[in-house]
């Protein structure tokens, strides 16, 4: 079942087309990454689905219904650094957030602080927190009322590797609890580590969307090497079924349609041509390579 469904969403700011007929579905329980270079329309898209901005054309539905204040209550969001008070503790800050938003009950506050790993520091002032802790508290504010869906815009922006790893673990744990998470990011490596699904935007146009594995798995790459690179290259050019061949130093990469690279066949073929291999591995294209290929960045 789709938690969110977008149909041909378009949005312009004067002459700038920020989104151009974007359509995709977010399955329940997925961690859905919206990837794109700067200015590709990610924040605009999140703002539209959260009713902060209005689209010019197209429609979207949450849980099969048009957006409404009721459905909005099932969605927790962190779009930009929220208004957390520097001189107040985690507990006091969440009490204020809760009083303003009316989400959940006071007993939720300790649970949320536990989920985001701040129990030991829950009475310390916000100003004494590391950036990662501040971001975890901001995520905690989005968790009040236990919404089924969480929307995060660049949740690891500005964090150091430790802070990034903590947020990654937190997102994975939220997903294990059955939450659907929609997150915009330009950190491709992070998306690859955390997300089950991805949509890639470029200048407001959707390039591809689907399961991370499927988006990546449209090609098999067999990487091959030998101490006789020239003979190897000459032999492999006659190997049947590959779509392209590339050379990276001594290593040769043969690209095949997904599921068709057979390492045994390559090994036998080279052996019969008198070339002994010292490397033969099947690789998948990384999301980063795929992203750069799609966006020509
Ligand atoms: N309020 C606005 N007025 C005019 N143009 C805008 C406005 N907001 C965004 N834009 C433009 O719309 C396009 C999409 O912007 P958006 O912020 O949605 O992209 P993004 O992918 O979130 O980028 P970033 O990663 O830099 O945050 C960009 O060209 C941006 O300059």
3D architecture notes:
It contains eleven helices and 14 strands. Helix content is 34%, strand content 30%. Helix 5 (131-143) packs parallel to helix 6. A hairpin with a 2-residue loop joins strand 4 and strand 5 (65-66). The chain has helices at 42-49, 69-72, 90-101, 108-115, 131-143, 161-176, 188-194, 212-216, 229-236, 263-272, 287-295, and strands at residues 2-13, 16-27, 31-35, 57-62, 65-66, 75-78, 149-153, 180-185, 197-202, 205-211, 219-225, 244-248, 251-257, 279-283. It starts with a strand and ends with a helix. The chain has a six-stranded mixed β-sheet with strand order 6-7-8-3-9-10, sandwiched between helices. Strands 2-1-4-5 form a four-stranded antiparallel β-sheet, covered by helices on one side. The protein has two domains: 2-215, 3-Layer(aba) Sandwich (Rossmann fold); 217-295, YebC, transcriptional regulation domain (Alpha-Beta Plaits, 2-Layer Sandwich). The model has no long low-confidence stretch (mean pLDDT 89). The protein is α/β, with parallel strands linked by helices. It binds adenosine-5'-triphosphate. Adenosine-5'-triphosphate (ATP) is lined by residues 13, 16, 18, 36, 38-44, 186.
Compute the average pLDDT.
89
Which regions contain 5 or more consecutive residues with pLDDT less than 50? none
Rg value: 24 Å
CATH class term of the largest domain: Alpha Beta
Question: Can you write the helix and strand succession as a string?
Answer: EEEHEEHEHHHEHEHEEHEHEEHEH
List its traits.
single chain, 297 residues, alpha/beta, Rossmann fold, Alpha-Beta Plaits, 4-stranded antiparallel sheet, elongated, binds adenosine-5'-triphosphate
């Amino acid at each position: 079942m789709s938690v969110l469904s977008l149909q041909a969403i378009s949005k312009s700011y004067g002459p700038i087309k920020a989104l151009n007929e974007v359509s995709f579905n977010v399955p329940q329980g997925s961690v859905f990454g919206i990837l794109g270079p700067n200015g590709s329309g990610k924040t605009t898209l999140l703002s539209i689905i959260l009713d902060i901005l209005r689209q010019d054309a197209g429609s979207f539905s949450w849980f099969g219904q048009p957006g409404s204040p009721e459905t909005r209550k099932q969605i927790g969001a962190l779009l930009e650094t929220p208004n957390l008070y520097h001189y107040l503790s985690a507990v006091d800050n969440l009490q204020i957030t809760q009083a303003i938003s009316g989400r959940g009950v006071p007993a939720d506050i300790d649970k949320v602080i536990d989920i985001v790993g701040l129990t030991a520091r829950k009475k310390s002032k916000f100003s004494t927190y590391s950036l990662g802790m501040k971001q975890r508290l901001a995520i905690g504010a989005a968790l009040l009322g236990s919404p089924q869906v969480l929307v995060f815009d660049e949740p690891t922006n500005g964090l150091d590797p430790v802070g990034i790893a903590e947020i990654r673990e937190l997102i994975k744990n939220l997903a294990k609890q059955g939450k659907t998470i929609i997150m915009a990011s330009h950190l491709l490596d992070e998306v690859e580590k955390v997300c089950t699904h991805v949509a890639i935007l470029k200048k407001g146009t959707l390039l591809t969307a689907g399961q991370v594995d499927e988006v990546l798995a449209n090609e098999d790459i067999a990487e091959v090497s030998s101490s006789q690179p020239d003979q190897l290259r000459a032999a492999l050019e006659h190997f049947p079924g590959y779509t392209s061949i590339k050379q990276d130093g001594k290593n040769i990469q043969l690209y095949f349609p997904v599921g068709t690279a057979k390492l045994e066949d390559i090994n036998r073929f080279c052996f019969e041509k008198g070339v002994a291999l010292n490397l033969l591995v099947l690789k998948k294209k990384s999301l980063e390579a795929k992203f750069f290929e799609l966006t020509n960045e």
